[in-house]
Design a protein that fits this description.
This protein is an alpha+beta fold. It contains 3 helices and 3 strands, in the order ααββαβ. 29% of the residues lie in helices and 15% in strands.
Amino acid sequence: MTETIVKAAEASGWKEKWGKLPPFHGIGIGCNSVQTGFPMGIRGGSEAFIKFNEDGGVTVISGVVDNGQGNENMLVQITAEELGVLPEGRTAYHSRH
């Protein structure tokens, strides 16, 4: 991340502009990071709870967000495989978000 910040500052002329712009104008640098992959002992939103329904169906409750990568379908498929049930129609996904 440090390399990215340095390159952004250089490309924008941040040092040359800092403190030299007219009143109510400025230049800044913002950054953010997202933890992905193995959590290294830090708990993320990847846990899931399984609820067995009275009709024999299964509900998956998780904090995992479906951001277009198919995360909801992935959890349904894993749950169905682990429990030995069919994923079609009897396994539902609900986000805790």
